Amino acid sequence: MPGFEFLIASLVLILMPGASALYTLSTGIKYGVRASMVAALSCTLDIMPHILASVLGLAALLNSSAVAFELVKWAGIAYLLYLAFSSWQSSRTLAIDSTEQQVSTVNCQ
């Protein structure tokens, strides 16, 4: 059973808002409740691979095997280089829509 210090540290970390919470809140303020729910779901799905890796013991394997850690690290580097090269070769440009969307407000009386 975890110690009292671990439980307190976990509670503090859970209660602190991170980038995901700020993203969800800002999306909700700008686009409404539905978009906020989608943002919260996507942030939750974002951490699922890490949770599954921990549950399946991949974290323990990578911690105990330096070779496995190096392989995963170099695979990640190769993937990031592939993404960089693909976006560099892409002929598309980044376009920002200058028209502002109107946010509907609900009058609560």
Outline of this structure?
With about 110 residues, the protein is mainly alpha-helical. It has five helices and no strands.
Number of separate strands: 0
Largest sheet entry: none
The stretches of 5 or more residues where confidence is low (pLDDT under 50) are none
- Broad structural category: mainly alpha
Number of helices: 5
Percent of residues in beta strands: under 5%
* Average pLDDT number: 81
The global form is flat
Tally of individual domains: 2
The helical percent reads over 70%
If you compute it from the alpha carbons, what radius of gyration comes out, rounded to the nearest whole angstrom? Answer: 21 Å
Any key phrases for this structure?
109 residues, mainly alpha, flat
Please tell me about this protein's structure.
The structure is a single chain. The longest helix is centred in the C-terminal third of the chain and has 24 residues, at 66-89. The chain is mainly α and 109 residues long. It contains five helices and no strands. The chain has helices at residues 4-15, 19-31, 33-55, 58-64, 66-89. It folds into two domains: 11-56, no CATH class; 57-87, no CATH class. The relative contact order is 0.06. The protein is flat and about 55 Å long.
